[in-house]
Amino acid sequence: MSSTPDIAPGRLPAATIAKNFGDINPPFDRFEARVASERCLFCYDAPCIKACPTSIDIPLFIRQIMADNPIGAARTIFRENILGGMCARVCPTETLCEQACVRNASEGKPIEIGQLQRYATDSFMGSGLAFAKRAAPTGRKVAVVGAGPAGLACAHRLALLGHAVTLLDARTKAGGLNEFGIAAYKATDGFAAKEVAFILSIGGITLDLGKRLGADIALADLKRDYDAVFLGVGLGGVNDLGLEDSLDGVENAVDYIADLRQASDLASLAVGRKVVVIGGGMTAIDIASQTKRLGADEVTLVYRRGQERMNASDYEQQLAQTDGVLIRTWARPKRVIGSDGKLEAVEFETTEETDGKLVGTGETYTLHCDQLFRAIGQSFLAETLGASGIAVTGGRIEVDAERKTSVAGIWAGGDCVAGGEDLTVSAVADGREAAISIDRALKLASA
Predict the structure, then answer these.
(1) SS3 313
(2) Is the Cβ–Cβ distance between 236 and 214 less than 8 Å?
(3) Model confidence pLDDT, tens digit, residues 370-389
(4) Which residue ranges make up each domain of the chain?
(5) What SS3 class is residue 339?
(6) CA atoms of 246 and 251, how far apart (whole Å)
């Protein structure tokens, strides 16, 4: 990343930065977990289960915590979601299970399901216990491309069922967005890497890193050499602004967050004094909050529609605003301004909605800044599929309910598939369901 008089490291003392990037939701202790669990009504037809993409039996694991059995509670969680520890940290529970909690109606406050899930899964992962034992080897081998949430969930379930799995990933570390893409204060102390190690401990999974689909490996070769293939490759492309923005100080938010997540010293990261972020999703919120926590004087997030239309949840928006981020709406970038190759400002045009379409009003304003982050979404790189014949809809892979693609022997899941929710927990559900479908197909082929 660049370092200029206006974009520089060391905006804040290292101790202050360490505090700013500490665990945003400190874990429950045993007493807090017991108290929180006792509020649960253990609904027979629990709406929280239906709201969970992985269908965890939430009342059951909470009852187990209430009975002082967090290890049993974790087993209940891991049976449905082997990445339950990370999901407890990053899931938008406020719009999923906790929003569905019946306690909202009676008390205006849901059961703290996410915190209870973290208490259980952390207890288990800290115990040194094995979650489960692999089934006898089936002699079948499966290639899983992408070691993010979808790929990890798929690989683990396949290994559990006795299949030999090769887990490939383009990066030099496994974990996908859990390792490289989420705000550092949501998963501290290297938790993403610890979770990967926990998942791989099942055995039967060979990790092969630094292998990029379409470059280092070809889908046709994987289909030839393996009994089945699962694609959990995520979104490798980054959308641009459609403007001339090759100035020093203009950066992709996803790249900066990845650098931040891998930095051994956050105080060494260069950050501007006046930062502008363009976008309205989780990546936009995460980069805005993190640059403010790194010491930027002003951080302004600009979104083209109203704040209620932002993809980031209300909780995340409020968190950013608490950090001091200014959210401006109904505006889109019109021109990036600079001199001598260096960013100086961004001109915005105000917008409005007419007949359901977003249009510019002609009015403009300028925000002076020394650092601009693009956070307007990512895209699937369809060219990585080669001449596979896999159907792509809306720029992403088309799959059926079992996560089968249009090509026999190839499944897909996670952010790269059409119709997904771009959530870690949804990616886990995709990987799990694909593994079950793959196992069924392999058994039928052997019959």
Answers:
(1) coil
(2) no
(3) 999 999 999 999 999 998 99
(4) 30-125, 141-235+382-446, 238-378
(5) strand
(6) 9
